[in-house]
Amino acid sequence: MKSFGKIAVLIAGAAMTMGNQKCQQKAAAPPPRILKKIVDMGAIRSSPVVFPGGGSFDFRFVANQQIYGVLQESKEFTFKYAPPIATAPVNEVTNANGDTNMFNLTSADGAMMKSSARQAGLDNYQVQYAQTAWCMVNLPQAKITGSVNSFELIGGGGITVGFTPAGAFPTNGLSSTGIDVQFSQLDLSMLAIHPLTSTVMAASNVNAKQTKTSVKFTLNFGAFSAGPSAYYQTPLAAVTKKALTNAVAGLNDQLKSEEWFSRVMANHDTHLVVVGGTDVGIEVGDQFLIYNEEYYWEGEPCNSRYLGGGSAVNAAVAKIEIDYVGDEISRGRIVEQNDFNAVVGAKVKLSKFHDPTYAQPIAGVQSTGQSIAQSPAQSSAQVNTK
């Protein structure tokens, strides 16, 4: 009987353990999907680190290198090395079936663009690209800039190399070979600004107290003066990356209130090509609303000071359902349409993600877009009439 009792206890314990594991599995559910905001990376300003004997280290260079890696690893932002539209539209005809020099696209995205244009019977992009809207395609949702306000390498006995807002630390009396660094700390500020008006959308600061880190390594002045390779072999690279990562996270927290949007890149009659693909997290079956906008310029559109703009009629002109997702662009089938056509540069907003049970349509089988029904009670997730 005692043995039977022990077995019963073991079974009960195993059942409780399995139950706890199931609870833990439920608690570890993946976070909800989000779309990455497209941002442009401006320069991070920084003073150089001055060494004895007139040598120095270009800290600005490595900070600007590292920020790109931080943004690539970010779950909230993505960036483009080159704008989607390579050259401004001109009056001359650009052959859509043979000349893709107008766009900065990967080979796969370029092939999709040409194929979609052919299916729509388009011979050129002249009609699609109006001067009043095309440059909006190249604009990010925000531009990120930054400044390293201080960078301090602290050695034994209070010896410090680097700089603060007051200037560089004096190097008089320091050995010309190097110092044993015990701690490193930096103060970093980052801004997200509007790409046209330069108004501040978000600001983040990581101070020296937050970044102070024990590093314990020998700083060789000669090796650091020769180039950035020595820097990446020290613990300093991890310290600055952490500071940049925290600063970017701070910007994201403030930009969560900014609704995600993208732009229409091409109108192919029954389909629209939009900026953003796997790089922003778009998936086949997602639906988006399209809004035409009006823009105000001081002089020539897209080539003078931007004075403002917004939604032309405060209503979506179309709804699309994504049927192709590329590297940096996606194509959507028009499923609802009002009396207006979506123009290049029109704003693209998320209507809804596809249902988890969504099944991708069979290739070649497509339904035609339907007219948008007029209804004053339509929700914000539906396309409105003019």
Structural account:
By secondary structure, this protein is of the alpha+beta class. The protein has seven helices and 19 strands. The strands form four sheets. Strands 1, 4, 5, 6, 7, 8, 9 and 10 form an eight-stranded mixed β-sheet that branches. A six-stranded antiparallel beta barrel has the order 11-12-17-16-13-18. The model is unreliable at 4-12, 91-99 and 364-386 (pLDDT under 50).
Which features does this protein show?
386 residues, alpha+beta, 8-stranded mixed β-sheet, 6-stranded antiparallel barrel, 19 strands, 31% strand, disordered C terminus
| Continuous helix count | 7
Largest sheet: 8 strands, mixed
Count the E strands.
19
Order of H and E elements: HEEEHEHEEEEEHEHHHEEEEEEEEE
Share of residues in strands: 25-35%
Give the fraction of residues assigned to helices: 10-25%
Mean pLDDT: 82
| Anisotropy-based shape | elongated
The helix/strand class is alpha+beta
The parts where pLDDT drops under 50 for at least 5 residues are 4-12, 91-99, 364-386
Q: Roughly how many Å apart are the termini?
A: 81 Å
> What value does the Rg take, in angstroms?
27 Å
